Amino acid sequence: MAEQRPEASGEAAGTLNASRQDATLRQDLSPASLRLGPIHVRAGIAEVEAFRRETGALENNKLPFTYPVRWLTHPDIRAAGPALINMEAWVPIHESQSFDYERPLDLEVDYQMMVELTREFEPARLILRAEIGDAKPCLQMEMILRIIRTDGAENHT
Amino acid sequence: MTLARDHVVAEIGNEPPKIGEKFSPQSFGPCDLDDLRGYAAASGDDNPIHLDPSLAQRAGLKAPPVHGMLLMSQFESALEIWRPDLTLIRLASKFLRPIFLGETVEISGRVAQITPGTGDEKTKFLLRLMMYNERREIALLAEATTILKTVG
């Protein structure tokens, strides 16, 4: 498995940066924002090979640059989205994405990921910001998703 | 898999990139539903809008769109072909228009800015990358920050 369930409060969050030292499994920051982590992530060889095959990535011994987006599908993150969206029928549409590496991530190495989810209104968006690292930060990701209703209602909330 | 990419020969010599340097267009696609199912399984992104034509229609789309992240991942591969001497350290993309099943896209790019290194900081090469749909509209607009690979 590439992902494991997050641990309880703060065990290793301080290894990422000082501002995250008080991280908890699920910390409500405001009615429209919450924080998850630390979530343990690892790029397994089999998962990376499957990802490489499906994206047509060239063969090499590096982690594909966009591979860590896979970790944002962690079950706890997926569960948090609907709680913030609070709509019946909707789908997320990708508006923008960024990957900002300070250091490369390696295969078969354990990392910790902290995630902050923020719900925006008018227009409806979900923003995920993730920081991945071990003793030092390695990668920051930002994903902005537009929320589109699929029940025929107007798409403005 | 129906994914295809024009593998052009790397077109550079030993010279570092220069501002304004353009890269030969590369194509990617078309993707079919099996390709999207395969990417969904490998990436964990099983958003049904990519896999269910009727749901895509209810969301106002004519057909399932290709995963934005599958498209974005093509920039890394394109860069490896254009400039194998560069390492990608930052990539940011906006998804301006959907690419639908059956569409082929074209990827192009150019060197937009060079920031000379200072001290331990390496020289950074900012690339402007575009992905066009079949109507020559920009579907993805991206910026890539790269550095020269360390030799040895």
Number of strands of chain B: 5
Mass-distribution shape of chain B: elongated
Helix-and-strand structural type of chain B: alpha+beta
Anisotropy-based shape of chain A: globular
Give me a quick take on this structure.
The complex is a heterodimer of chains A (157) and B (152). Chain A is built from two helices and six strands.
Task: Give a description of the structure.
The complex is a heterodimer of chains A (157) and B (152). With 157 residues, chain A is mostly beta strands. Chain A has two helices and six strands; from the N terminus they run ββααββββ. In chain A, a hairpin with a 3-residue loop joins strand 5 (125-133) and strand 6 (137-149). Chain A is globular. Helix content of chain B is 21%, strand content 32%. In chain B, a hairpin with a 5-residue loop joins strand 4 (124-132) and strand 5 (138-148). Chain B is an alpha+beta fold and 152 residues long. Chains A and B meet through helix 1 and strand 3 of A and helix 1, helix 3 and strand 2 of B.
